[in-house]
Write a structure and sequence with these properties.
The structure holds two protein chains of two kinds. Chain A is an alpha/beta fold. Chain A is built from ten helices and 18 strands. By secondary structure, chain B is mainly α. Chain B contains 14 helices and one strand; from the N terminus they run ααβαααααααααααα. The N and C termini of chain B lie far apart (48 Å). The chains are: A alpha/beta, B mainly alpha.
Amino acid sequence: MSDIAIRVEGLGKLYRIGRREKYYTLRDTLMNAFKAPFGFFRANGSQHNSNNTIWALKDVSFEIKQGEVVGIIGRNGAGKSTLLKILSRVTEPTEGYAEIHGRAGSLLEVGTGFHPELTGRENIYLNGAILGMKKREMDRKFDEIVAFAEVEKFIDTPVKHYSSGMSMRLAFAVAAHLEPEILLLDEVLAVGDVAFQRKCLGKVGDIAKEGRTVLIVSHNMDSVRQLCQRAIWLDQGRIRKDGNPLDITVQYLGDHCGLDLDNRGQFRRRHRDTLGKTVWIDWVELRDSSGNLCTEYSYGSTLRLIINFGGHIPQRDFTVEWILVNEQNHRISFGGANPMCGVYFGKDDTRMECALGPLPLTAGKYNFNIIARLWGGPPWDFWENAAAFQVVHCDPYETGFSVPSHSGGDFIISQVWTVSAPR
Amino acid sequence: MAWKLLIFLEKAIIWVTEEEIASPLGWIAKKRYRTEERGLPRREGENDLQIERAQTPHLVIKPTSGWVPLSFRAVWEYRELLYFLAWRNIKVRYKQTALGVAWAVIQPVMIMVVFSVFFGRLAKVPSDGLPYPIFAFCALLPWQLFAYTLVESSNSLVADERLITKVYFPRLVIPISAALPGLVDFLFAFLVLLGMMLYYGITPSGALWALPFFILLAVTTALAVGFWLSALNVQYRDVRYTIPFITQFWLFISPVAYPSSIVPEPWRLLYGLNPMAGVVEGFRWALLGKAEPMGGMLAISVGVAVLLFITGLYYFRRMEKTFADVV
């Protein structure tokens, strides 16, 4: 037996969009039926008209080995859910084929088929049956499921009286006790409170450790990194990257945050973003210590952030702030030119420069958000992801090893180590 | 008297739904636990994964085109789901209603009263020598079963849209499971019929053995139409508006309020094209001992039902793959 669990080749799914089909009525169909009696039986979707169709998935090929845990990432509409729907046989592909070796169970939604009028106990059985569990299996796991969901007290209460968190927990608990060889999960880990989410992650981790093959669609990069051995990045229905989850998620987030590193350090504002503002951030430059436009820096170098304004600058209490964010869009530092730092603007001072450094940053991509306002007042202009740069080399200890940001943190606090034998 | 009967029925229903329908699960679960606790030790290190891997199925997913085989086997494999969905439909049907399953009885009884007054008493519609109320009620039973099954199965796919878009299973399970609660209602209404037969002193004829066959014929016809309409309903919501019309129309062309004997002889075979004509006359024959229905008419009814059923199945299977995308 081969050790392939899932093999997908040239998979494609065409969806029809547009108005003509939507307002296709029974009358039209009946008319057509009289015109061409056999055409009536033809399943709709056979005429591929490129105007009102969209390939939700196209030319997707990959192989997943048994026991592999694979994360599928991508923006909304990238085809992730379509892929899982095809693999779980909810919908048919338009072209290509997929092979599944082993019993597959899928969870495309938490709580599918839950009925509010039924009690927790009844819903466990109903939901289990819907997910493909045998009654024997459910009988055996019943107590475990109830304990996992933490709803022992309410098990004979109709689910409509549950809090939404409770019913979600119960639903996830049922699904978590599926025991297929191949598990397909679509964005189902974000259920309940933080503690329960951790529990869910742990459960999926356990499932993975048992040697099952798991395919997870997730928007949570941390859980993809934590759980998966491999990540597939889907973009507009095609596979963009396939590989190590660390690399893929970093690249994906970089792409996702709109980090555009090809513009050599000069970032211009779109005209429409400045409309109607008295003061606006017009353009931003990033230069290195020798004054050249640059977006690639190394640890310890200096970066010069140059911000140019448009409009009329008020002279008193004008403040410009930057916020430094990492790839996950978490703010990691900030700074500003305002009276607190002893900076006051003159009437024609529409250009400001901030020399930042030496940069303590680890390798990775970073972005500046820039805010202009009166000191302590609401923002007049906010430019998110204004200027992106990359730290390509981080070797703070000068040992030849490079430190990437996702290995630990975004910046290095200067440190001195001594090691010695106990005295 | 009637009220007491209703209360009794309600109690019986509670007993049945709580003890027989609701709890087989709890009851079976408990039983299983007991066996589990008592022993049947699982072998060391053996888990479901290993048991399942032994029979690793190999599934190929690819686009299908043309006619699809009916694959009853797939439906059979999902019989547990069918059972649970049917059980859900039964369980949920009369939740949060004051009268509960009494509705299964009230509806045909009320219609019978109206028919008896207007058709039987005032319009003097013939009833083949039987008391008009029981003549009508005996026809209303299969009629209600038929109409319920037709309506519920036709709307079922759209009603269970979430299941269809999120989970795989043979879609035939849905209209079939939607139809089953109709049989429960039928059972309760049937008790009333037995009471009425006692009251009128009518003993069932020797043809009682044929009754299950006519029930089957009614359900088959309704499901056949249900297959067609539910599949069409996924794509064209027009169907939803035609369903009340269809049932109303069908009621008038079926011999519920009148006997089929008022249809002139040469036309009676044609009348058999409506399978419900065969069903209703069959019911009167089997239960009330009315003259045997015409063999030819019945044969035509069965033929039409089977034809509708098979084409319905094929159409349903044909459209099945588009359900998740279109619904």
